[in-house]
Amino acid sequence: MSSRRSRISEEEINELISKLQSLLPETRRRGAGRASSAKLLQETCNYIRSLRREVDDLSDRLSALMETMDNNSAEAEIVRSLLRS
């Protein structure tokens, strides 16, 4: 079995770039114009960083909320059930 990677064609790369572009809110707002691949990848990195900050913020807020709740309260049980799903 060969350890060489199969090559991705330029067409496949363009298709993947188009799919990526359709997933990013910034490029959807901008419309049908096509950004360069480098700019698109930079926007992707920025978007991922933004999502990570948002998750961290929500996690901190949830932790603070859980600290103020009575562990046996109905609200605490609802939050726990939401976290499990």
Q: What does this entry look like structurally?
A:
InterPro entries: bHLH_dom (IPR011598), HLH_DNA-bd_sf (IPR036638), PRE (IPR044293). Pfam families: bHLH_ILI. This is BHLH domain-containing protein. By secondary structure, the protein is mainly alpha-helical. It has one domain. The protein has helices spanning 10-23, 25-30, 37-68, 74-84. It is elongated.
Task: List the defining traits of the structure above.
elongated
Task: Write a brief structural summary.
The chain is mostly helical and 85 residues long.
Mean pLDDT: 84
Beta-strand content: under 5%
Q: How large is the count of helical segments?
A: 4
Uncertain parts: none
Number of domains: 1
**Order of helices and strands, N to C?**
HHHH
Helical fraction:
over 70%
The rough form would be described as elongated
Total beta strands: 0
- Main sheet: strands, sense, barrel: none
Describe the secondary-structure layout.
Blueprint (H helix, E strand, L loop, with lengths): L9 H14 L1 H6 L6 H32 L5 H11 L1
